C-alpha cells in the first residue's frame, strides 16, 4: 500500500495523493488538493481547496520543545489551517496551531512554528524560519533564509530581503529578568528591510521605512526614512516616487 489514509479523514473531490503519504485522523482536504510523495498530514489539519502540498512535507505536527525550553506546549493547541490556493513547498514543516490564509506561497525547506498567523497572498521564501506566535500581514514578502523570531509582528505589504535576522531577547537566554521583556520587532506597513539587516528586540520599524542592507536597527525609526549603518541612523527621506499609493 503506497498511501495510508485514516478512515476519519475527509477527502474532497478530485484530490491527488502521491506515493507513501500518511493522512491522520480528522484531517480535512478540500476539493482539487494535490499532495506529493512522502507527505505527512497530521491529525485535524485543514487544507483548503486547490492547495498544493509538495514532496516530503510535514504539516500539522505537534511542537516538541526541549526540556530546558521556555516554550510551553498548549495541550489544546488548535489544528493547522491552510487556506485555499496555497502552495506549500518541498521539505517544509508547518506546526499545529497556525493559520495560513489564501494564495500563500511557502517555499521549499521553510518552517512555520505554532500559533503563527499568515494573512492572504504572502510569500515565504526558501529556507525561511518563522518562530512561534509570529503575525504576517497580507501581501508581505519574506525572502530566502530570513529568520523571524518569536513574538514578531510584520504588517501588510512589507518586503524583507534575504538573510534578515530578527531578535527578541536582550539577555540572550540568561537571568530570569529576560522573561519580562522578551519581545520581537514590529515592522509596520510597507516598510522594506535590506539584505542581512538585523532588527533588535522590540524595535518598531515605522511605515514606509527603508532599512539598508547590513544595518543594525537598535531603536525605533521614523516613517518614510532611509536608515543605514551600525547602529542604524537616518540618512534621508524615502523618495516620493518609491512610496506606495493607497
Automatic annotation (TrEMBL):
**UniProt KW keywords:** Repeat, Transferase
- Keyword DNA-binding assigned to the entry: answer is no
Quote the PROSITE patterns the UniProt record gives.
HEXAPEP_TRANSFERASES
Among CDD domains, the record links this protein to: LbH_WxcM_N_like (cd03358)
Q: Which GO terms describe its molecular function?
A: transferase activity
What Pfam families does this protein's entry cite?
A: Hexapep, Hexapep_2
Q: Which SUPFAM superfamilies match?
A: Trimeric LpxA-like enzymes
Taxonomic superkingdom: Bacteria
Q: Which PANTHER family match?
A: ACETYLTRANSFERASE, ACYL-[ACYL-CARRIER-PROTEIN]--UDP-N-ACETYLGLUCOSAMINE O-ACYLTRANSFERASE
The protein's name is Transferase hexapeptide (Six repeat-containing protein)
**Which species expresses this protein natively?**
Melghirimyces algeriensis
Lineage, top ranks: Bacteria, Bacillati, Bacillota, Bacilli, Bacillales
Amino acid at each position: 500500500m503506497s498511501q495510508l489514509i485514516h478512515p476519519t479523514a475527509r477527502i474532497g473531490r478530485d484530490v491527488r495523493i502521491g506515493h507513501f503519504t500518511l493522512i491522520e485522523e480528522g484531517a480535512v482536504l478540500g476539493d482539487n488538493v494535490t499532495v506529493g510523495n512522502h507527505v505527512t498530514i497530521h491529525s485535524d489539519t485543514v487544507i483548503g481547496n486547490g492547495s498544493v502540498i509538495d514532496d516530503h512535507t510535514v504539516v500539522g505536527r505537534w511542537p516538541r520543545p526541549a526540556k530546558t525550553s521556555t516554550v510551553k506546549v498548549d495541550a489544546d493547541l488548535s489544528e493547522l489551517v491552510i487556506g485555499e490556493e496555497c502552495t506549500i513547498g518541498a521539505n517544509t514543516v508547518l506546526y499545529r496551531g497556525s493559520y495560513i490564509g489564501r494564495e500563500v506561497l511557502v517555499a521549499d525547506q521553510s518552517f512555520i512554528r505554532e500559533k503563527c498567523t499568515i494573512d492572504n497572498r504572502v510569500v515565504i521564501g526558501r529556507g525561511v524560519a518563522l518562530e512561534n506566535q509570529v503575525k504576517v500581514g497580507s501581501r508581505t514578502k519574506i525572502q530566502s533564509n530570513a529568520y523571524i523570531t518569536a513574538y514578531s509582528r510584520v504588517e501588510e505589504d512589507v518586503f524583507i530581503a534575504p538573510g534578515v535576522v530578527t531578535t527578541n531577547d536582550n539577555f540572550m537566554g540568561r537571568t530570569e529578568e529576560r522573561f519580562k521583556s522578551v519581545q520581537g520587532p514590529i515592522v509596520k506597513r510597507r516598510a522594506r528591510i535590506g539584505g542581512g539587516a538585523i532588527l533588535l528586540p522590540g524595535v518598531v520599524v515605522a511605515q514606509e521605512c527603508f532599512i539598508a542592507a547590513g544595518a543594525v536597527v537598535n531603536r525605533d525609526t521614523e516613517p518614510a526614512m532611509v536608515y543605514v549603518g551600525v547602529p542604524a541612523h537616518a540618512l534621508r527621506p524615502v523618495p516620493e516616487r518609491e512610496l506606495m499609493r493607497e
